Amino acid sequence: MVKIGVLGLQGAVQEHVRSIEACGAEAAVIKRVDQLKELDGLILPGGESTTMRRLIDKYHFFDALRSFGESGKPMFGTCAGMILLAGDIAGQEDAHLQLMDMKVARNAFGRQRESFEAEIELRGIADSFNAVFIRAPYILETGENAEALATYDGKIVAARQDHYLTCAFHPELTDDHRLTEHFVGMVKEATEKLASLS
Ligand SMILES: NC(=O)CC[C@H](N)C(=O)O
What we know:
By secondary structure, this protein is of the alpha/beta class. It is built from five helices and twelve strands. InterPro entries: Class_I_gatase-like, PdxT/SNO, PdxT/SNO_CS.
């Protein structure tokens, strides 16, 4: 069984744990850097990216999170987690982990639409998926290696690049676990591949 962590510094942590377990994988809340080495994959949850970044620095997670991704272990960033993964953030000089080749815009759906739900198509994953958006970002552009998996209102709201997965909404807040299941599949695949290399 693969073990998937949820970065537990801030945000929607428990809901992701429940969702990982519903997909038949083992889940762990990660609060210390040394816990990362037990993991096959990691979810960066939704919450507040600025606060999360402050805590990442405070608890010395920054380099460890980058190395985790660079070692080939899958990461899934949801909402604020998408902002943390992005290589470029509109209107901001410094991005955070810069593990995914994409430019994102924060709080991008506007004030009138702070939170909403929408049915979207997740390419290759679900024809119709109820997506919960909360002060959501979206992807303005993706690099060559990234593949857009979903759009809403003409904006890219989910993407995959190699072993990185990201979405602008909160898949952990409904009982539809298909996107998390997709990530669990990515983790299984990567774990087998990394084992065969070692
Ligand atoms: N629900 C969320 O994760 C919101 C993200 C938040 N707007 C941010 O910039 O971090």
